[in-house]
What does this fold into?
Amino acid sequence: MAIKCQKGKCQKGKCQKSKRPEEQERRYALDHTTLAANCFHHNEKEGTEQVVLALHGWLDNADSFAELRKYLPHYSWVCVDLSGHGNSEHRADNCFYHIWDYVRDIVQLIKQLNTNVSLVGHSLGGAVAMLVVSVIPESVQQLIMLDNVGPFTAQPTERITKIQGFIRSADRVQNKKKRLYETQEDMIAARMKGFTSLSRQAASALVMRGSQLKSGSGYHWKHDAKLEVTSPFAMDAASVDEFAKNIMCPVLILLAENGIYQTNKPLVAHRGKHISDLDMIWLPGNHHFHLEAQTAGAVANKVGDFLHKNR
It folds into this structure.
């Protein structure tokens, strides 16, 4: 697959809107929505390049992979803004964000790319990638999950409270006004203290793509506020295990020593037992160890070795 300029207007091999010659901002029109992606084309003969499709985490965006791309320039990257994030379209007013809908989005995107891909997913993106690989195994060469071992699960006894929580959070978000920030520096400071702590450098990468100026009155987040609504449904653990068993390609799971699984290693071990061709490695760093400058190099080394070995 050759990643082409969005409008096909290139001079001397450079996309006119590129920040660098190989960087292209693209929009992919699916049947039901449009996804934005930051694409980096490694100039190989068409049909021989290795395409890495990267899926970010909740409330992040395509620039979550900014550091990995720098370390691994010999691959063609398609870094997607998931629906409702970054520059991608939001879902309709009466639609929320369920993991199955993300799976459908990415299955359609892979079909549009018209090539086999190597899937890299961080956090939410890792859970989505795991399900995608299970349902279209013929289209994915390798799966790399970053600080994720699959979708969150719930017990049948939690079904009622899950739906109650969904209704409450949906009502709260519907009546919530978007917060405005005077500067993007204020947003960076807020993002550093978010769900997981980030360095200024990492927070800045996400804020630059994830924010915009509103009519000169201040900056606000681009993401759809409905992303903050809790899910009304989660799979049970046995169902997730079945998806794991259906993964046919080689899998690399990299886990952060100070990430979200640091106190739940039994779950990590359990999930790993159901994946037949698996390398699992713990590395120093926090939940965004692939984006933090101090730890991204070690993550990239493992990712690069795995991609090369299994191409």
Observations:
- The two ends are 15 Å apart (CA to CA).
- Residues 188 and 262 are 26 Å apart (CA to CA).
